[in-house]
Amino acid sequence: MSNDELLFFTSMPQMLPLYTALRDQLDQLHPDVTAKVGKTQISLRNRYVFATVSLPWRKVKGWPEEYLLLSFGLSYHKEHPRIALAVEPYPNRWTHHVLLTCLDDLDETVMGWVEEAYQFSMEK
To answer: In what order do the strands lie in the sheet with 93-100?
Structure first.
């Protein structure tokens, strides 16, 4: 993990273990994944961005105070109670947002969605 990735969590260090677990699982499956750190998010990429993580930057009614927002792209709208929000910014390009608050949230279901997003981005 890069210094920039570590510094990204300065404002909310309690979310770093969750991000580390996500990166560890991705690194085991896909060693080609790289991370690009921006001001508001970390983009996870193969050839293209397939997922991002960000910290809360404003309060949203009904959402917890502390979470790691995992966003990933698919070609269709996936409906599931754990998906907090899904939008279609481009035709056949749906961005889904999942709130992760603890390590248990990073389960087979979520990692399956991330894997699906990884494969979808490879097809572009």
So the answer is: 34-37, 42-45, 49-54, 68-74, 93-100, 83-90
What secondary structure does DSSP assign to 58-87, as a single string?
S--TTS-SS-EEEEEEESS----TTEEEEE
Residues with Cβ < 8 Å from 119, sequence gap 6 or more?
none
Of residues 108 and 63, more confidently modeled: 108
Q: CA torsion angle for 26, 108, 89, 53 (degrees, to 10)? A: -50
Q: What is the pLDDT of residues 100-112, one digit of tens each?
A: 999 999 999 999 9
Widest pairwise Cα distance in the chain = 37
